[in-house]
């Protein structure tokens, strides 16, 4: 009897453990899968960093790309995905894949506040180099839920505005939506320059009933056409979208230039402290026989001033376009004597600790 009891107790214990594990799995069905995906992403990141440190760029690019896909499926933060996208973009830049590099670096810098300062600086420098080799297209689409194709390839996402990086040359952009006529636009992009394009899909005309067809109900009188005062005399929709795109581009460029000037200023301050410990004074570089490092210092000071000036000019320009775009709604009603459309665009300035821009709401 004692031996039988001893043999039953381990079985009962194992049964209780199995039941508890089943309950835990039922309560958290994704726990095991999420752990496996996180482990896979960490393994891929380790391989990618080793290949990057060894300057095996093709191997590092493939590993970072796989790690980014695994991170999207795992329980990772925006900061972790942004760091992977930045490293992937830098590897693509080293391989000469400038379009993909610009796409991933821009994706990472949308979360610049979550990235480490050295990585932000590397990503910004890399994005400037990549943008000098590709075409930046600011695309506006109305209605915003239209399906967009660039050179026959679907973008795979729907939005009212897009920031796209394309190879230099001729490109064709199409937009289509059920119940609307297809819109097509072409442009010739040049490397290092930005282009803007707006596609508006008009509603498809309703098919007229064939002659002699029986009427399904009483004939309704046609709706009267709107009075001439309610019709727009200027293409305000296109001007507003273009103004919003230019305002966003100006604010983004100004932020990048000012950040670059701030980095240079920080470097100058650190080197100045070191030179002061070595006996330098503020007038050392004024001497006729000034030390050779003074030439490099003057060059960095001029570069800091140039970036600061460009940043301020870009910010002011973006603000002017943003204010003009917002004011166009008042101009339409007050100066042109027309009634603003109900389905117009509302432009709202938006600023955070790390980003600034405009928010466009509505349908135009």
* Low-confidence sequence ranges: 1-34, 228-233, 338-343
The main sheet comes to:
4 strands, antiparallel
- Which outline best applies? globular
Helix- and strand-based class? alpha+beta
Alpha carbon gap, first and last residue: 86 Å
- As a percent range, the share of strand residues is 15-25%
The percent range for helix content is: 40-55%
Mean pLDDT: 75
For the CA atoms, what is the radius of gyration? 30 Å
Count structural domains.
Answer: 3
User: Strand sequence of the main sheet, in spatial order?
Assistant: 3-2-5-6
The helix/strand order is HHHHHHEEEEEEEHHEE
Count of individual helical segments: 8
| Strand tally | 9
Report on this structure.
By secondary structure, the protein is of the alpha+beta class. It has three domains: 36-131, Tetratricopeptide repeat domain (Serine Threonine Protein Phosphatase 5, Tetratricopeptide repeat), CATH 1.25.40; 135-203, Carboxypeptidase-like, regulatory domain (Immunoglobulin-like); 236-362, no CATH class. The chain is built from eight helices and nine strands. The protein has helices at residues 2-27, 31-53, 57-73, 78-94, 98-109, 117-131, 236-277, 293-334, and strands at residues 135-142, 147-150, 153-154, 161-166, 169-176, 183-189, 194-200, 345-351, 356-362. The strands form three sheets. The protein has a four-stranded antiparallel beta sheet, with no helix packed on it. It has a three-stranded mixed beta sheet with strand order 4-1-7. Strands 8-9 form a two-stranded antiparallel ribbon. β8 and β9 form a beta hairpin. The longest helix has 42 residues, at 236-277. The radius of gyration is 30 Å and the shape is globular. Mean pLDDT is 75; it is low at 1-34, 228-233 and 338-343.
């Amino acid at each position: 009897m004692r031996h039988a009891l001893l043999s039953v107790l381990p079985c009962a214990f194992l049964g209780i453990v199995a039941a508890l594990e089943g309950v835990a799995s039922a309560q958290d069905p994704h726990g095991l899968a999420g752990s496996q995906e996180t482990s896979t992403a960490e393994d891929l990141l380790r391989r990618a960093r080793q290949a990057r440190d060894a300057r095996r760029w093709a191997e590092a690019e493939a590993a970072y790309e796989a790690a980014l896909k695994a991170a999207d499926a795992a329980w990772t933060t925006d900061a972790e995905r942004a760091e992977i996208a930045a490293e992937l973009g830098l590897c693509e830049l080293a391989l000469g894949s400038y379009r993909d590099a610009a796409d991933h670096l821009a994706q990472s810098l949308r979360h610049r506040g979550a990235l480490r300062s050295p990585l932000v600086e590397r990503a910004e420098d890399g994005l400037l180099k990549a943008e000098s080799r590709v075409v930046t297209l600011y695309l506006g689409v109305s209605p915003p839920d239209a399906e967009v194709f660039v050179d026959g390839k679907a973008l795979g996402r729907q939005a009212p505005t897009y920031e796209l990086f394309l190879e230099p040359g001729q490109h064709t952009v199409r937009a289509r939506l059920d119940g609307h006529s297809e819109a097509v636009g072409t442009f010739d992009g040049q490397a290092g320059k930005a282009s803007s394009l707006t596609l508006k899909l008009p509603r498809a005309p309703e098919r007229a009933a064939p002659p002699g067809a029986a009427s399904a109900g009483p004939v309704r009188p046609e709706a009267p056409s709107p009075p001439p005062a309610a019709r727009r005399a200027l293409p305000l929709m296109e001007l507003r979208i273009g103004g919003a795109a230019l305002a966003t581009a100006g604010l983004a460029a100004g932020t990048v230039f000012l950040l670059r000037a701030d980095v240079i200023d920080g470097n100058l301050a650190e080197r100045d402290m070191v030179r002061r410990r070595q006996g330098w004074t503020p007038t050392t570089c004024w001497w006729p026989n000034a030390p050779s490092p003074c030439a490099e210092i003057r060059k960095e000071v001029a570069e800091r001033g140039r970036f600061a000036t460009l940043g301020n000019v870009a910010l002011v320009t973006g603000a002017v376009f943003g204010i003009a775009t917002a004011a166009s709604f008042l101009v339409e009603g007050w100066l042109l004597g027309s009634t603003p459309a109900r389905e117009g665009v509302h432009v709202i300035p938006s600023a955070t600790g790390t980003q600034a821009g405009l928010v466009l709401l509505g349908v135009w």
